[in-house]
Specification:
mainly alpha, 10 helices, 75% helix
């Protein structure tokens, strides 16, 4: 049984220490990225203002919440499927903690996250709408983390609520981009959006893992098969664009050798997961051992993208 505690609010190092104890380090270490994370250079090379940095941080946090929602659903699914049950529950615990921390910070403010209390009415309303569904979803996760069985009823409730919370988080990202458009533009729109795309790649990896698990569990398999096929295409095309560039979409090639190396490692590790994903995406079946291998491989891929994000942030910061 995992002891339930309130989301840590003192410092992220508490979470980092917890994270290092767990077996699947890829995505979990990813959750503990420090929040010097928003690039701090304006489009013209000038230092950005606190307001501009805070706006970019808000968008980054909202983007990370998308990944956490997918990750929590994935962890619950693998625990329910009997794959690395204790590790999956521990991963769920960390993701649930971090999501809660971010969620409260957006609304109430959090100095450690470079967040002041949100004042914009549009975002406050969206947060309140999200909060209602998140509290319902969080209640299910609390029950599981307290050691209660993952019954069919709890599982189905969590998956349905995860879909709703994920959609609301996507809407929140759009709201941040709209409300803080000037601040983000002054900060360097290209840099902010590139960081968001890198962050999105981690969400896509977790979504692939979740979809494979749900298909193999027989939960709305047709729906999740179509979603898997689409998500894999976006993931692979995006990864190629990050490495080689895609000028028509404004995506530059990897700007440093360090970033390219991280992305190449991501591609190499994805190649270990891809054959298993391909079987499922084409309507085939995999066994429990393959499902466990896929689970681990995607966590590694997610961790690889975390390294790329850290290198991108370091690059943008060094331009100041």
């Amino acid at each position: 049984m995992i002891q339930i505690v309130g989301p840590p609010v003192s410092r992220m190092l508490v979470l980092e220490d917890d994270v290092r104890e767990f077996a699947f380090k890829g995505v979990l270490v990813a959750l503990a990225l420090s929040f010097g994370a928003a690039p701090s250079v304006a489009a013209g090379g000038e230092a950005t203002t606190e307001a501009e940095d805070a706006a970019a941080t808000r968008m980054t946090i909202a983007g990370r919440q998308r990944m956490l929602v997918e990750g929590m659903a994935s962890s619950l699914c693998f625990a329910h499927a009997g794959i690395e049950v204790e590790e999956s529950r521990r991963a769920l615990y960390v993701k649930w903690n971090v999501y809660s921390w971010y969620h409260r910070g957006i609304y109430h403010g959090n100095a450690h996250l470079n967040l002041t209390k949100e004042q914009d009415n549009r975002i406050v309303r969206r947060w309140q709408e999200t909060n209602g569904r998140w509290q319902d979803l969080s209640s299910v996760y609390r029950q599981v983390l307290a050691g209660e069985a993952i019954t069919a009823e709890r599982f189905e409730a969590a998956m349905a609520l995860s879909e709703e919370v994920g959609n609301l988080n996507n809407a929140l990202v759009v709201d941040f981009r709209t409300v803080y458009a000037d601040e983000i533009s002054n900060q360097g729109l290209g840099a902010a959006l590139l960081l968001d795309l890198y962050e999105r790649q981690r969400m896509l990896a977790q979504k692939i893992s979740k979809n494979v698990c749900l298909i193999e569990s027989g939960y709305n398999a047709d729906v999740h098969l179509a979603d898997l096929q689409e998500t894999v295409g976006i993931f692979e095309n995006s990864l190629t664009a990050f490495i080689e560039g895609m000028p028509m979409l404004g995506i530059p090639p990897a700007p440093t050798d360090e970033i390219r190396a991280r992305l190449e490692r991501t591609r190499e590790d994805w190649a270990k997961a891809q054959p298993i994903v391909k079987v499922v995406a084409e309507g085939g079946d995999i066994d429990q051992d393959q499902l466990a291998l896929l689970h681990h491989a995607v966590e590694v891929v997610t961790g690889d993208m975390t390294g790329a994000i850290q290198e991108l942030v370091a690059y943008e910061t060094a331009l100041d």
